[in-house]
Write a structure and sequence with these properties.
This protein folds into 2 domains: 1-96, Methane Monooxygenase Hydroxylase, Chain G, domain 1 (Up-down Bundle), CATH 1.20.58; 101-223, Up-down Bundle (Four Helix Bundle (Hemerythrin (Met), subunit A)), CATH 1.20.120. It is globular, with a radius of gyration of 18 Å. Strands 1-2 form a two-stranded antiparallel ribbon. The protein has a two-stranded antiparallel sheet with strand order 3-4. The chain is 68% helix and 6% strand. The longest helix has 23 residues, at 123-145. Helix 7 (162-171) runs antiparallel to helix 8. By secondary structure, the chain is mainly α.
Length: 223
């Protein structure tokens, strides 16, 4: 693997590339979209980089591959969000590995980043990022409580659905019914963002989600 400094620089270049693509988007009969050449350049360059750093099985690779799949401008907004998250991970010296625990400081960085995306008008990318932080925190809480975070499917360990973890954490007394309901609502909003149901929620709801998740993490620490 290349030196960390080189990886940080390259991640920054990819963020700039995605933002440049958005800067040249146009609006036509089918909505706003970026140029095909720009989309192809960002997608191929980013996937190559993410595979080199994390591998194809990492969530960053899978999420980028799934979310940045078309010339629609919202796909490129996802690219900006994911690549910015990767840049922050590298800059703070954290390369995720299977089973790694993310520090509260890193979560704070991601949520701050989501807040920035929100102020820039990228509510959908922000919702996905906030939801990602919440999901990883729930998995950490489950591990701490001795709750299984994986199950066997076709003989292979597969991550359990985060909704099931939320239910187990509540019934196990890890947090209150009120928190359980809040987590359920936030996960629902994240799923809407991840499945392009953008008209079913607004900027203010994502802002409330951000504040709620920040408070939830503070009141329910892993350590």
């Amino acid at each position: 693997m290349k030196k960390l400094e080189d990886l940080i620089i390259r991640a920054g270049e990819l963020v700039a590339l995605a933002k440049e693509a958005l800067a040249h988007k146009s609006t036509g009969e089918w909505g706003s979209h970026v140029r095909s050449a720009d989309f192809t350049n960002v997608r191929s360059s980013a996937l190559s980089f993410i595979e080199m750093v994390y591998g194809r099985e990492h969530s960053h690779y899978r999420e980028f591959d799934a979310k940045v799949a078309d010339v629609g401008d919202y796909h490129m907004e996802y690219a900006v969000g994911i690549l910015t998250a990767i840049q922050t991970e590298l800059a703070t010296g954290w390369l995720t590995t299977t089973g790694s625990l993310v520090s509260a400081e890193i979560f704070s960085d991601f949520l701050e980043m989501a807040g920035y995306l929100l102020t820039e008008g990228y509510k959908d990318a922000a919702a996905v990022m906030i939801g990602g932080v919440l999901e990883e925190h729930l998995r950490q809480l489950a591990r701490k409580a001795g709750i299984k975070v994986e199950e066997l499917k076709d003989g292979k360990p597969t991550p359990r659905k985060v909704e099931s973890l939320n239910a187990d954490l509540y019934t196990g007394g890890i947090y209150s019914k009120l928190d359980n309901k809040g987590v359920t609502a936030w996960l629902d909003l994240r799923n809407k963002a991840a499945h392009a149901k953008y008209s079913e929620y607004g900027h203010e709801q994502v802002a409330v989600m951000l504040t709620g998740v920040q408070d939830f993490l503070t009141r329910n620490p892993v350590s």
